[in-house]
Amino acid sequence: GLDDDDDDDENEMNDFIVDEEDELDEQGNVIRRKEKKKRQSNVQGISGYALSEAQEIFGDTTDLLEMYQERKKQREQVEAEGTENTEGLNEDERALLLAQKNLEPAVIAANFYTQSDERIRKEDRPEREQLLSARIGELSEVAYDMEAEWIYRRVFQPPAEPRVRDEADRQWKEDSDPTGNRPSFLRFLLEHGRREEGERAYRRWKEDCRVARAEGAEEPQEPVPETPEEDATAVKKAIERCLRYIHLEHLEVPFIAMYRKEYVMPLLRARPEEWMEEREEGKLPPPGKIRRWDLLWAVQDWHNRYVLLERRRLALQRIFEKAGVEMEGAQAEEVERCLAALHTADTQEACEDAEAKFKLHFPDDLRNLRGESEGLKRLVRQSHYAHYKAQGVDALAKQLGLSAYELGENLNSVYKKYEPQDPDQDPEELAAAHV
């Protein structure tokens, strides 16, 4: 029955399970076996659970433990070498130095632990200004009066539009008095872009004249506006103060506008579009009303452009002067012309023109002075001008016609400033001297 089947199953399993015979002592008692000692179950720095799990997976972990201990010694040695150079540093600085040595550069940059980030944190300057200075550079010496004049010409002296001039002419004709004389102060204000101020002053003056005539009193004289020299001087002084605040005291535009406004008051003016909006509503804003900081931001923007221009101009000046030391005669005169053109250059385009002029006459010198001759370089195609100049034909060309400078002067002048000089020799004799 069922019991017989169970016995048969147990008999079959008897051959599969092997029981080791227990050791007996002299009295026949079973000797308890000694448990195998767990090897290195408490390794320093590794939990027992992690070690047992590693033994279950890899079996004997002796080699892994030896490798772990070796790498641990190497890390301790690196940290010991790093701490030798960290004497006098606090705990945070020492940790930052170790992190920079042991972590990946991408991780360090993502968490702002680089040396440049540390310099930004230590320096008492706005981060935006430091990043901008690193990109465009800085000037060791700044002539603030010259820079203020340069910015004034670009921000406050835009070219007059024809529409504005036509409107001014129409207003002069409409507002002329019976004798045909136009009000001088109105014309002056219109010429200097102060149209709204001129209209207000002219309306007040006409109203005062009407009241004086009604009362039988003497009519008032025309108001005398500020001269352009006085108005320009005030604006230039404000620009110069703003530049000093930005460059020397490292102040930003919002701070200057709110806490230094009494020193830059001429720069705090309304936008042109705001004048037009209020004019359509039939009212005009009072003069000197503070509205926006546009001009302060413009001064800062043009200051950055001036720094780039001045750094490029100084770099070209050093190259030209270094090249002129070894040149004599006509070549030295050409270098002086290039330096003169560079000194008057107040735009990037003018610097490019001066550089192109120097490169035209001394292409090899410019490359050598810039260090472009070292290492591999692209093959430079020689132009016909350079070829004939190397053959000495330039001396013949100087005796015929006008030079490029003289031709340019004639084109810019309203008259023929330079006349071409014809040589006294015959063409055959002149050419034979250069063959």
TrEMBL record:
Acidic residues composition-biased segments: 1-26
Bias type Basic residues, positions: 31-40
GO molecular function: DNA binding; histone binding; nucleosome binding
Pfam families cross-referenced by the UniProt entry: HTH_44 (PF14641)
GO process annotations (BP): nucleosome organization; transcription elongation-coupled chromatin remodeling
GO CC list: transcription elongation factor complex
Domain Helix-turn-helix DNA-binding: 229-325
InterPro entries: Spt6_HTH_DNA-bd_dom, Tex-like_dom_sf, Tex-like_HTH_dom_sf, TF_Spt6
Region of interest: Disordered: 1-44, 72-91
Protein name in UniProt: Helix-turn-helix DNA-binding domain-containing protein
Upper classification of the organism: Eukaryota, Viridiplantae, Chlorophyta, Pyramimonadophyceae, Pyramimonadales
